[in-house]
Design a protein that fits this description.
Helix content is 52%, strand content 5%. It is mainly alpha-helical and 149 residues long. Keywords: DNA-binding.
Length: 149
Amino acid sequence: MTARVNVVGGKRWNERFSHVRLRAVRESRGLSQARLAKLVGQARETIAKYENGKQIPRVPTLHVIADVLNVDVTELLEPGPMDLAVLRAQQNLSQADVADALGISQPWYQHLEARKARLDPALLPQLASLLKVEPDVLVGLVRLRTADE
């Protein structure tokens, strides 16, 4: 299992993934592990490992599973506070995707998600558009640069 560096809701993906939620959603859809595995393109044993908490799906796989189960990816995560990483994950964007679109470096964007960097307020509408939210949603989630910075 590869450790993820993406942070979602203040925790790493592998700390937020809910094997209990995955099983519950799969069962609520009337799917067997074997059927879900076939639809997702994974081995049944892999789905079993996900559901038993022995393995964590990679982010792209998590999105495929969510699509097959017809749920938002956040339904397969433990509840947590909304943050930039959650919004980015809902749009299936990588940190590099967002950084490129904003014209900033990926490490700098990573610091922005961790609230260690400040965003130029002029980029707020563009970031909101990428994440498909209103700019005012982001105001509490990002630290904005002030005029004297």
